[in-house]
Design a protein that fits this description.
The protein contains 15 helices and no strands. It has one domain. Helix 4 crosses helix 10, helix 4 crosses helix 12 and helix 5 runs antiparallel to helix 15. The termini are far apart. With 406 residues, it is mainly α.
């Protein structure tokens, strides 16, 4: 009898040891440095778009107007870097939730929300409140009370959708609102129904996004903005990222270099097609419902190609500088428009009184954009070191699945 009990205890200990090993294997650090590089690439696309001058019906241009319009349409494709941010966020968050659930049997909602608060809120709320205070003395930065409330409640995108003619200070932060909405919904789905619920929710997001596009194009105006800013439309890209995470289940694609280059090139071409042929971000165009649906589909397909083309690249082939810039990409995105506005104001002051406007203006414009990028990187680096990093160190204490090192 004693021998049987001893054997039973030994078997139970062995089962417990195996379970611990399985949990430890699933919960080991999940960090892909190549995705940091891709994240910086997404920011670079957005920056180039916002740094590119708009083509107006009147005014002198150094190239033919038709060529300038095509250049602008290609430049507008950089807007889709925001969609790539969403795909990346959903892929990473879904994979982390999957690993935590496997390791610990459930997802800690409290820890998840606390980590997102520590990551997003300090910089975002710091910038919003600071600009609101400065706006009391600087008219160009003045925010309406409605906009300020919307931004503080992470509903800035809906403010811009419902009030397209309202104040547009900090308008580029609409994407932070959409991402925060995703962070609220996604862990609740996993907690209620596991990864199966996340899977079905992701699948349902795809036709829902299409329906939102159809309704918006039939009954709305300012389609280049209102469809773009719609959470129901943008959740399509979160869904795609989640589906990739579920499909890969922790593995990474093992593509050859040629295949990766081809996927990245195809992704860029799909983005350009969505902009040039479907005109989904052209404020001068009036695209049809079919064009809008096709355009947003092409953007999603392009994001998938870019993610799969990058995911799994050996870390030794990823430049450390790009990894670092991707690490501070949140600050880069938050500060880039403020930097562009500051350098633009300086450029216009320097241009006052110059008669050779085209030559002087072109040189100053190039210098303006280079200085804006440098200023953006400087502000983001300082923000990461002195504002974000202290909160990230606290953040990591609540992480059951360790991710990027601080």
């Amino acid at each position: 009898m004693a021998l049987a009990e001893l054997e039973q205890v030994g078997t139970s200990n062995q089962v417990w040891t195996d379970a611990q090993q399985t949990a430890a294997g699933a919960a080991q650090r999940f960090y892909r440095p190549e995705l940091d590089a891709l994240r910086f690439g997404a920011f670079a696309c957005v920056f180039l778009t916002h740094a590119t001058p708009s083509v107006h019906p009147s005014g002198n241009l150094p190239v033919q107007r038709s060529v300038a319009i095509w250049m602008q349409l290609l430049g507008e494709a950089g807007n889709f870097g925001v969609c790539l941010f969403f795909v990346l966020s959903a892929y990473l968050i879904t994979e982390i939730m999957r690993r935590e659930s496997i390791s610990y049997g459930t997802l800690s909602i409290k820890r998840f929300y606390l980590r997102r608060v520590l990551r997003i809120w300090p910089l975002y709320l710091g910038v919003v409140v600071t600009v609101a205070l400065i706006g009391m003395a600087v008219p160009s930065l003045q925010m309406s009370k409605t906009q300020l409330l919307a931004y503080l409640l992470f509903a800035g995108n809906w403010y811009l959708v419902l009030l397209p003619n309202g104040t547009n200070v900090l308008s580029w932060l609409w994407s932070i609102s959409v991402e925060e909405q995703f962070y609220i919904a996604w862990p609740l789905l996993e907690r209620l129904g596991g990864m199966r619920a996340v899977l079905w929710a992701s699948i349902c997001c795809l036709p829902t996004a299409t329906a939102a596009i159809v309704l918006s194009t039939r009954f709305g105006q300012h389609l280049y903005a209102t469809v773009w800013l719609n959470s129901l439309v943008q959740f399509e890209y979160f869904a795609l990222g989640a589906l990739i995470a579920i499909a890969l289940a922790g593995s990474t694609p093992r593509f050859r270099a040629v295949m990766r280059v081809a996927l990245i090139a195809i992704g860029v071409c799909l983005w350009c097609s969505a902009s040039v042929f479907c005109l989904i971000k052209d404020p001068r165009a009036n695209p049809t419902t079919m064009m809008m649906c096709a355009g947003y589909f092409l953007v999603g397909a392009g994001c998938i190609c870019l993610l799969l083309g990058t995911l799994g690249i050996p870390s030794r082939h990823v430049p450390r500088s790009l990894v670092y810039l991707g690490r501070i990409s949140y600050g880069l995105y938050v500060f880039h428009e403020l930097a562009l506005e500051a350098t633009t104001a300086i450029r216009w002051k320097l241009l006052a009184g110059h008669h050779d406007y085209r030559m002087t203006g072109s040189l100053l414009y190039l210098a303006d954009r280079v200085c804006a990028l440098a200023l953006t990187i400087g502000c983001a680096a300082l923000s990461y070191k002195y504002l974000e990093r202290p909160f990230l160190q606290i953040n990591h204490r609540f992480a059951l699945v360790q991710t990027r090192p601080v």
